[in-house]
Amino acid sequence: MLDRQIRKKVEWAFYNYKDLKKTSKQNMTDIAESHITVDYGKISAKSSAHNGIESVLVKAMDKDYAGQWCNIVEVTLSHFKDTGKDDFIKFKYFDRLGEFWLCDKLCVERRALFRWAEEVMTYAAMVALQEDLIKII
Q: Which residues of 68-82 are buried (b: 16+ CB within 10 A; e: fewer)?
């Protein structure tokens, strides 16, 4: 069983996945564009073995909260791929279909939906715990 606060945080990431993905991409683009400088007056034939933009983006990705939650959702989707639960995740959290529509589309009973939701949220919470996005005290 998950704590109510943890479950709400994990479900929030699933419900807001598309927005989080968009935010993460925009953050990476902004960071990359802010570190690109071109001096056309000075053309050099030297090549650099170290690219500063790459190191800045790698550091930024570690601090990108939205991107980390997107990764949790993607890892969870890949874990439940081809089990029927991947469709459950897409319909429930991305398309936001109601319980009766889910039962009809997935051809399962209502109680199965609750078991699946609990299993998906538990797995996602464990992945988030490994990534230090949530704390259990």
A: bbbbbbebbbeebee
Nearest residue to 26 (alpha-carbon basis) of 70, 77, 89: 70
34: which 2 tokens?
A: 């802010």
Helix (H) or strand (E) holding 24: helix 17-34
Q: Other CB atoms closer than 10 Å to residue 84's CB: what's the count?
A: 12
DSSP secondary structure of 41-86? T-------S--HHHHHHHHHHHH-HHHHHHHHHHHHHHHTTTSSHH
Burial class of residue 17 (count of CB atoms within 10 Å of its CB; 0-12, 13-18, 19+): buried
Q: Which two tokens stand for residue 79?
A: 């874990």
- The reply to whether the predicted model has a pTM over 0.70 is yes
Categorize the per-residue pLDDT at 107 as very low, low, confident or very high, splitting at 50, 70 and 90.
very high
Write the pLDDT tens digit of every residue in 18-44: 988 888 766 666 666 665 655 555 555
